[in-house]
Amino acid sequence: MHELPLVFFTVLAQGAAGLFFVLAALLFINKDAKRKVVLDRLMIVAFIAMAIAGPIAMLHLGQPLRAFNVLFGLEHFSALSLEIMAVGGFTGLIVIYLVLALKNLLPALHKPVLFLAMVMAIVLVIAISHVYTLDTVPTWNSGWTLFQFAMTATILGLPAAATALRYQSDKLGVFQRNSDKALATLGLLAMGASLIGFALYLFWMGQLTLPVNPFTAMEYHSRLLAARLVLLFLGMSLWVVSSLRGNNGTIKIAGWGTALILFSELAGRIFFYDLHISSGM
């Protein structure tokens, strides 16, 4: 599959945006200086995810240096160029925040930089979706594209943040347990919204006039969609049930749940890219 690098890039980048946003929100809620140090260190996970996603995206270009050619499209506000700038801006702000926070430099700038990075996380998800909102691809040319990408950020970001918090549960104490339960509740709601939205998206797509049936464009589509739903349900259930039952410190359960959700989103993204074929291009 030629778009496989983009599958991994978009899912990882959106997951990193969601993870960072959740941890940043917890930092704004936190009032304890020692907890802040722990939460700041966890932000490194979001940076690592972006550090992996960026090079993977370059594989799609064939030659990494072509990224500089894409930047020339900024003159015309090319969606792809803006996406690259959003990736760079978001990653850059993560680095700036980590340097300031971990070195305890200019404390007055910590929250402003953190807030800007949160805004850039949202901009990143929107910028990626704009790359695929194309008049020539009817199956992508709707608000459902942004919805799916935003849900990926949410559904991946919540359990990933919970897993990171569980890794430091001994240092975060009650704050971690309360956060885990709150995130699990949000995760359950997000899964419901995602499933309902995806069902409505499939119904909407079924009403389009297309040269190829999008549901049978590839022989494996039915299995792919089934795998996505099963993996999402199992992954979210592992984490949410353990959390709401009070088992908030076991990192393996949340980790496996996050991994299953990641595979679920990758399966859904493969289906999304396959829909480009169904447009007749």
From TrEMBL:
Q: Which UniProt keywords apply?
A: Membrane, Transmembrane, Transmembrane helix
Q: Which InterPro entries match?
A: DmsC
Tell me, what is one Gene Ontology molecular-function annotation carried by this entry?
dimethyl sulfoxide reductase activity
Q: What protein am I looking at?
A: Anaerobic dimethyl sulfoxide reductase chain C
Q: Which residues form a coiled coil?
A: none
Q: Name one GO biological process term.
A: anaerobic electron transport chain
Q: Which Pfam families match?
A: DmsC
Annotated source species:
invertebrate metagenome
